[in-house]
Amino acid sequence: LKLQVQGKTNSTPQYNGTADCLNKIIKSHGLKGVYQGLSATIFREIPAYGVYFGAYETLMGKAEKKYKDRKNIPLLNVMSYGAVSGILLWLLTFPNDVIKSCMQADSLENRKYPTIISTINTIFRENGVRGFFRGLTPCLMRAPPINAATFLTFEIVQSLINKK
Fold first, then answer.
1. Per-residue pLDDT reduced to its tens digit, 39-85
2. CA quadruple 120, 126, 128, 129: dihedral, nearest 10
3. Are 103 and 40 in contact (CB under 8 A)?
4. Is the dihedral angle over the CA atoms 142, 148, 152, 158 positive or is it negative?
5. Average pLDDT, whole number, for the chain?
6. DSSP designation for 113
C-alpha cells in the first residue's frame, strides 16, 4: 500500500518499486514497519472471508440440492452467487477495510493511526459515519464481475481436476 499512496502526500516518489520499498522500510523501521497495519488486516480478513465463502457455499449448497449435483448447477448461477458473495463481503466489511487502509498507509514516523481503536475514533471524529464508507460505490461496481469470474474459474478448474 505504501507504493500505491506515495505521491499523494508529497510530489516526489519515495520508493522505486517493491524491493526498494521493502529495503527502505526495513532499514528505517525494521520488521515492525513492514507489518504496520497487520492487526487491522486480520480485523478485516476474518469476517470478510467468512462472509464471502460462507455466502457462496450457502448459495451453492441450496443449488446443489435443487440440481442434485454441484456439476449440474448452471454456470450463470455460479456467477450470480459469486457476484452476490462479493457484494456482501464489501457491504458488511467495508469499514474494516477503510480502517486497515488508513493504518497501512499511515506515516512510519508520525503515526496518526497507531491502533484500530484510535483509527476508528479519528475517522469518526474527522468524517463521521460517512468516513467509513468513502470509496464503497466503485468497490461495489467492480465486485460483481470480479467475484463472478473468480468463482466461475474456481468451479471450472475444480471440475477439471475432479475429472482426472
1. 999 999 999 999 999 999 999 999 999 999 999 999 999 999 999 99
2. -40
3. yes
4. positive
5. 90
6. -
Q: Indicate the pLDDT class of residue 107, thresholds 50, 70 and 90.
A: confident
Residues 6+ apart with CB under 8 A from 5: 105
Q: What is the DSSP letter of 15?
A: -
Q: What is the pTM of this model?
A: 0.81
Do 106 and 29 meet the contact criterion of CB atoms below 8 Å apart?
no
* Distance separating alpha carbons of residues 77 and 137, to the nearest angstrom: 24
Burial of 69 (C-beta count, 10 Å sphere; 0-12/13-18/19+): exposed
How far apart CA 40 and CA 122 sit, in angstroms, is 15
Task: Confirm if 34 and 26 have CB atoms less than 8 A apart.
Answer: yes
% residues pLDDT > 90 (the chain) = 70
Give me the helices (H) in the chain, please: 2-5, 18-34, 38-67, 75-105, 116-127, 136-163
Are 134 and 127 contacting, i.e. CB atoms less than 8 angstroms apart?
Answer: yes
Neighbouring C-beta atoms of residue 111, cutoff 10 Å: 13
Whether 77 and 60 have beta carbons less than 8 Å apart is answered as no
Q: Is the pLDDT of residue 128 over 90?
A: yes
